[in-house]
């Protein structure tokens, strides 16, 4: 018999694996690597990530609830319909919330917090210059996370977090134009916070998120529909 603490640890570990698998498949769908109608099998997801089929199956069930997958009798899971406009709509919703957080950050930022944002931006530029895509993405997320913390509005940031969990985080640097767009857009956001201009910061953030959504939507639309499916 498993004691309660051990059971909780086991369940927690499986949940983390399930979240990892859900993020992985969600990223494949949003990037266009898994096209609508493609079959997704838990054992193949498990093999790809080095985990068992149980957390992979739980992940696919979660993605079905989120609307990313369909459960088809006798066939299993299939990727649900998704269009470039769906991606644009998702980013538009994010832009509104992220813009408000940027405006609040511009009003609230201390000098030390501004310096931290400046440092993150310089590190992002350096990563882009040496084509270090993982570091570029890490600094990009750190920059946005810092703004959300400086805003001091955890409830609003929480809502934004629920939206951004649907967006893949591990391939942006591969999208044509994204690294340069990130640097240019971040400079405008940072400028608004440096001069404590809430309206400038809000608008710059909204443009940035909308821009990122457009780049991802185009990337999705340009993917060949022939490349669908997770295979052994």
From TrEMBL:
SUPFAM superfamilies the UniProt entry points to: GntR ligand-binding domain-like, Winged helix' DNA-binding domain
One Pfam family cited in the UniProt record for this chain: GntR
A GO MF label: DNA-binding transcription factor activity
DNA-binding is among the record's keywords: yes
Keywords from the UniProt entry: DNA-binding, Transcription, Transcription regulation
UniProt entry tagged with the keyword Repressor: no
Domain HTH gntR-type residue range list: 15-82
SMART domains, per the entry: FCD (SM00895), HTH_GNTR (SM00345)
PANTHER family per the UniProt record, alphabetical: GLUCONATE OPERON TRANSCRIPTIONAL REPRESSOR (PTHR43537:SF24), TRANSCRIPTIONAL REGULATOR, GNTR FAMILY (PTHR43537)
Name the UniProt record assigns to this protein: GntR family transcriptional regulator
Taxonomic source organism: Nakamurella flava
């Amino acid at each position: 018999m498993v004691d309660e603490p051990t059971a909780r640890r086991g369940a927690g570990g499986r949940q983390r694996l399930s979240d990892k698998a859900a993020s992985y498949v969600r990223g494949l769908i949003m990037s266009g690597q898994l096209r609508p109608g493609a079959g997704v099998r838990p054992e193949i997801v498990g093999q790809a990530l080095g985990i068992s089929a149980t957390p992979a199956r739980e992940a696919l069930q979660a993605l079905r609830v989120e609307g990313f997958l369909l459960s088809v009798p006798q066939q299993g899971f299939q990727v649900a319909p998704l269009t470039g406009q769906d991606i644009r709509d998702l980013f538009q919703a994010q832009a509104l919330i992220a813009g408000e957080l940027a405006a609040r950050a511009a009003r609230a930022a201390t000098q030390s917090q501004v310096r931290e944002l400046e440092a993150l931006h310089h590190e992002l530029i350096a990563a882009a210059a040496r084509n270090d895509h993982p570091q570029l993405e890490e600094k990009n997320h750190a920059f946005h996370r810092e703004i959300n913390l400086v805003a001091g509005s955890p409830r609003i940031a929480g809502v934004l977090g629920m939206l951004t969990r649907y967006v893949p985080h591990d391939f942006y640097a591969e999208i044509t134009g994204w690294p340069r767009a990130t640097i240019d857009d971040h400079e405008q956001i940072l400028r608004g916070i440096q001069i404590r201009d809430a309206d400038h910061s809000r608008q710059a953030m909204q443009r940035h998120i909308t821009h990122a959504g457009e780049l991802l939507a185009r990337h999705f639309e340009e993917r060949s529909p022939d490349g669908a499916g997770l295979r052994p």
